[in-house]
Specification:
506 residues; alpha/beta; Isoleucyl-tRNA Synthetase, Domain 1; six-stranded parallel beta sheet; four-stranded antiparallel beta sheet; binds 5'-O-[(L-methionyl)-sulphamoyl]adenosine
């Protein structure tokens, strides 16, 4: 074991059913969790649901349900989506759990006793949809800059967190840890925001009841974002299992969307500093998906249902598409044409074709057996070098969650292997009874085996088929990246022709 590794997704609001955005963040975190397991880390992967707040209280009221009933119903949808998508989380948290209430109450009281939370008055705009205060200067034509809905004017007694006090320490943190926030342009945004000066933030609300009451001021509820962020501690045993907490905190990565970066990169580290706890190691903010060029919204009726996409195109095809289509961190556009093009191009024509060519040749030319290689030529050395370079490039990019680039290395390797087949023409070597044949097939088989391992975090099911097609019997899930990255000969079961792994779609 290489040590602990802790990764999280945001916890999702359960006022509505999950959509492609939720699937995106969760799949992205899952890819990293699987990759790190492959590398030998003890991975704790947390996801969950954000169940308190006005938005949920209102949604429930409109359906004549108690908020908890709504949460219970929606929870099922989220859980079945994660199961369908092959999400390998090891922890799950609901903010309505008792263990979480204890953590949030403790943190709030502790910060109050310390003088970091104080009583004041808030007057301004509040967007109930985003559960967020909106400053006058951020309004867009009087609307919330994030969801473009009309915010509400509120004036109320409120508890404030002394965020202003933590500005200098946050700047220090940012200064010393250039990789604290990825991608880099998001890091720069946060730095300028902090440099411009931080104001104290309101951390309590009145006027509704669905939330955790402020322990020492019952008419106030703890602000839902304060409540939500602490899930990252509760989920990993804070105040419950100190040993586990010590092992996994600070978290390695919070994977989030760009819309919730300030909460994670500014408020959250400041809360932790106030409690004397370490800030997370890294935050990755990804971009948003539009649908056929338009913002996804209920009113436009273009919300992409991840259940449907997964059923239509296949789970792994969907996972792959999301990670391969746009550089992780930038915005992307979802369309049928785009997903078809990926499936037919990368998966069917390139990868699928390579696999079926290689296994068919091993079956036909060597009766399904892998043979020891003979003497190597320059081409073989060049191929192996190319494989090594791709693996190194992949590794470097994966460490920064640059999935798009990591996959570029994988597909460079697919092309290199296809080209090697064309150049070496194993069918000709076979016809001529040439002694190079076993070497060429050995190289191709090894290249494919390595490819399969590199693709496993992205397509956990399809790669299992590839693994078996290569005659490998050990479970792919427990493969080790360090052992699999180089060429070697192992005993395989008979290798036989297979049906198309990625059927072409029209
Ligand atoms: N509950 C808060 C998070 C609290 S974390 C302590 C929340 N929940 S959410 O359900 O609204 O959204 C969660 C995630 O979905 C965010 O990372 C957000 O960026 C992502 N997405 C929502 N719509 C999206 C797209 N259209 N495209 C990509 N991701 C999007 O915020």
């Amino acid at each position: 074991m290489k040590g602990p590794f802790y990764i999280t997704t945001p916890i999702y609001y359960i006022n509505d059913v999950p959509h492609i955005g939720h699937a995106y963040t969760t799949i992205a975190a899952d890819v990293m969790a699987r990759y790190k397991r492959l590398c030998g880390y003890e991975v704790f992967f947390l996801t969950g649901t954000d169940e308190h707040g006005l938005k949920i209280e209102r949604a429930a009221a409109s359906m004549n349900l108690h908020p908890k009933e709504l949460a219970d119903r929606m929870l099922e949808r989220f859980l079945s989506l994660w199961e369908l998508l092959g999400i390998s989380n090891t922890g799950f948290i609901r903010t309505t759990e008792e263990r979480h209430r204890r953590v949030v109450e403790y943190a709030f009281s502790r910060m109050y006793e310390k003088g970091d939370i104080y009583l004041g008055e808030y007057e301004g705009w509040y967007c109930p949809f985003c559960e967020s205060y909106v400053t006058e200067r951020d309004l867009l034509d009087g609307r919330c800059p994030d969801c473009l809905r009309e915010p509400e004017r509120v004036r109320e007694e409120s508890l404030f967190f002394r965020l202003s006090k933590y500005g200098p320490r946050l700047l220090d943190l940012l200064e010393n840890r250039k990789d604290f926030i990825l991608p880099d342009f998001r890091y720069n945004e946060v730095v300028s925001f902090v440099r411009a000066g931080l104001r104290d933030i309101s951390v309590s609300r009145t006027g509704f009841t669905w939330g955790i009451p402020v322990p020492f001021k019952g008419s106030h509820l703890i602000y839902v974002w304060f409540d939500a962020l602490f899930n990252y501690l509760t989920g990993v045993g804070f105040m419950e299992d100190e040993q586990m907490f010590k092992r996994f905190w600070p978290c390695n990565w919070h994977v989030i969307g760009k819309d919730i970066l300030r909460f994670h990169a500014i408020f959250w580290p400041a809360f932790l500093m106030s409690l004397g706890l370490e800030p997370p190691q890294g935050i990755f903010a990804h971009g948003w998906w539009t649908v056929e060029g338009r913002k996804m919204s209920k009113s436009l009726g273009n919300v992409v249902d991840p259940f449907e996409v997964a059923k239509t195109y296949g789970v792994d095809e969907f996972r792959f598409f999301l990670m391969r289509e746009v550089p992780f961190g930038l915005d992307g556009d979802f369309s049928k044409e785009a997903i078809f093009a990926r499936i037919n191009g990368d998966l069917a024509n390139n990868l699928g074709n390579l696999l079926s060519r290689v296994v068919t040749m091993i079956q036909r030319f060597q009766r399904g057996r892998l043979m020891p290689p003979g003497p190597r030529s320059g081409e073989d050395e060049r191929l192996e070098e190319e494989v090594t370079n791709c693996v190194r490039g992949y590794e470097r990019e994966m460490e920064r969650l640059s999935y798009y680039r990591a996959l570029q290395y994988v597909f460079d390797l697919v092309s290199a292997l296809n080209k090697y087949i064309d150049e070496e023409a194993p069918w000709r070597l076979f016809r001529e009874g040439h002694r190079r044949l076993p070497t060429v097939l050995y190289n191709l088989w090894n290249g494919l085996r390595i490819l399969t391992v590199l693709l496993f975090p992205f397509m956990p099911e399809k790669t299992k088929h590839m693994w078996r097609a290569l005659g490998l019997q050990s479970p792919l899930e427990s493969a080790s990246f360090d052992e699999e990255r180089s060429f070697h000969l192992i005993e395989t079961s008979p290798i036989a022709k297979i049906g198309p792994l990625f059927p072409r779609r029209d």
